[in-house]
Amino acid sequence: MPLPFAPAARANPPNRFERVHLAEMPELGFAPNPDDPPEDPRTELLVDPSRTIVATNDSPDLGFGASVNPYRGCAHGCSYCYARPTHEYLGYSAGLDFQTKILVKPRAAELLRKQLMSPAWKPQVVALSGVTDPYQPAERRLRITRGCLEVLAEFKNPVGIVTKGFLVTRDIDVLAELARADAASVMLSITTLDAELQRKMEPLASPPSKRLAAIEALARAGVPVGVMAAPVIPGLTDHELPAILQAAADAGASSAGMVVLRLPHGVKELFSDWLAEYFPERREKVLNRLRSLHGGALYDSRFTHRQRGAGEFAAQIEALFQLGLRKARLASRGPTLSIAAFRRPGAADQLSLFAQG
Q: What is the pTM for the complete model shown?
């Protein structure tokens, strides 16, 4: 409907006092993959103006000290996601905002190259990504994760990836190049093999069958690949542990890990509400079993404990996991990645010039 007046301003430029603004992202010619879940039409992509890209941590139970997060927030919309509270630091909600207001870092590859070129950079494994999934729906169009992988391959800097996205198979060429230098490994996160449960719990993530297909494709290409049974949800998915591990092994996985459900801060209420909506008859059973892992609380953030819990039921889950490992003949950890091939582009050419002089 036409306006009854002529507006004085016809454009809406970004507020000069705001650091975050809506991103104008080109489609880049990538058609949706019919095998992928649809994107949420409510999703907004927001430019993240970060000036550095590598985050570091000294947490003893994470297994990596450096990570790159191309995205903040995650459109997969997993009901249990422990990363949801990170959106609150940005002034957003851990609920719907986390899965519809996605901050993207279009300069990620440029910033990563700058950091790896610095003499201060000590070659080490970089995790893609430590917080949210690097292969969430927007990556098909934006290729930010792809750009970061290309930089890591250029430097032969090792990378470890954990993802729920079949889209990781798009980057097999780069991952295989890194794998030939013992500098890449991938873990596919599988929470359940029940496709109906998965759709309710992880609505816009790749279905279990596609994650197993990704394991098969990566293994066939020579990329070390494993399965992360995570999160294990007591009273809902824990009984699936052996089947998940066997299915992953049959697809070509060589290792497996496990993390029990974590419910920090407001995720407790969000997941409790999700249970009430979809599994009201199991809600109290699941919550009570979680409390049994954490001394009566729904969550305990202590390092190491937060990944497994403690007590009789935690021991049962661990025993089931170990039994599944043995039957599926999977290693309990992935390969040790190497920094031996790391090089800064141009360094060899400069050395040869000095030698000639």
A: 0.87
